[in-house]
Design brief:
GO terms for molecular function: kinase activity. It catalyses: ATP + protein L-histidine = ADP + protein N-phospho-L-histidine. It is an enzyme of class 2 (transferase). Its cofactor is [4Fe-4S] cluster. It is a single chain. This protein has twelve helices and five strands. The radius of gyration is 44 Å and the shape is rod-shaped. The chain has a five-stranded mixed beta sheet, covered by helices on one side. Strand 1, helix 11 and strand 2 form a beta-alpha-beta unit. With about 400 residues, it is of the alpha+beta class.
Amino acid sequence: MTSSDVRDADPRDAGSDGWINKVFLMWHVSFAVLVVAAVASLLGDVDGWLVYALVALLCAAYAGLLVPCLARDSLRLGVGYLAVAGPVVLALGYLDPNGLILLYALFPQVFGVLQARRSRLLVLVALAAGAVAVGLRHEELTTAVVQVGIALLVSLLIGTFTQVIMREAERRGRLITELEAARADLDEAQHQAGVLTERQRLSHEIHDTLAQGFTSLIMLIQAADATVDHDPAATRHRLALAERTARENLAETRALVAALAPVDLQSAPLDTALERVTARLGEELGIPARVRIEGTPRILPPDVQVVLLRSAQESLANIRKHAAAGRVDVRLHYADGVGTARDGSGTGVLLEVRDDGKGFSPGTAGGYGLRGMRARVEQVHGTVDVSSAPGEGTTVRVEIP
C-alpha cells in the first residue's frame, strides 16, 4: 500500500474508501499487537530503562511520523519514521532476540512508505542484513537467516496484497470519475440536442403560422388597394378577409406562445380544419378550392394531425405565392383497416394537395417551407413527394404509414 494509492482513490467511491479504512485499521492493530507481544517478551528477559525508552521512541515515531505520512502523502515523514524505527527494532533485537518480532510490522511499513522499487529493495535488504547480524548474537547463522527470511516473506505477501487492493481502489476511483465526466458530457449533448430540436420546431411553427399569415395579409391589402377606387364592395370583402386572417394569426401566435396545438385543431377535427384553411385560400384567390375526404375518418394521434395540417397550410401558402392556379383540390384519404392499434401506430393516412397552376421544373424548388415540411413529416416516419412540371400544375403528397 502506498500513500499515493490512498490519495488517488476517489473518496466518493464508498467501496474503495471502505477498503482503505480496513487496511489502515489492520496496520494499526497489527502494529499494536506486535508491540505488546514484543514488550511482554522483552520485559520477561531484560531489565532496565533502555527497553522502555526504545519502545516509547518507536511508538512516538509511529504516531508522529508514519500516520501523518500515510494521511498526507509526505515522503519526508515516512523516511524519517524508517530512520528511527529501523535502528530501534535492531537495538531491541540486540538486547533480546524476541525484539526482532517487530520486523513483522516494520517490513510491511517499508512497502507503505517507499514508492520507488529500488529504494524499497535497498531498505529491505539493509534491514534484513542488520537483523541477521543482530540475530547472530543469540542464534546460529541458519536459524537467524530463517527467522528473518520468514518475516520478510510474510511481509512481502502482506505488502503485495495491500498494494493490489489499493491499485484496484485507484482504478475504480478513476473509472468512476471518467464515467461521471462521460455522463456529464452526455447530459450536455442531450440538452444541446433538445435545445436545437426545440428551436427547429419553433422556427417551423413561426414559418407555418406567422409568416404565412403575414403573406396572406399583404396580398389581401394589395388586392384591396387595387380595387378601392372602382369596386368598393370587393375592397370591403378583401378587407374583411384581411381582418379575419389577422385575428386568426393573432390566435395562432397566442397558441404558439402557450405551446398549444394549432388553433384550427383546437376547435375542430382535422377534416374540418382542412376544409377551413382550404376555403380561406379559395376566398382570398377567388378560385374553386375544395376538400375531399376518403375512407372512414378516425381520430389520429395529435402529432400526426399537426403534421398533416401544417403540411396542408404550407402547400396552400405556396399555391398562393407562386402557382397562379385556377383550381385547388385537397384530398385526405384514410386507409381502411389501418391504425386500429391502441398506441396509435399504423396511422395509414394520405394527404394530397393538387393545383392546376404554372408548376415548375423538378429540382428548382427546395426552400425553407418545403424543407420544414419534410422535417415535420419525417418526425412521424412519413414521406413527402412533390411532383410538378412547367404548365402542368403541382401535386404534393404526404403519406404517413
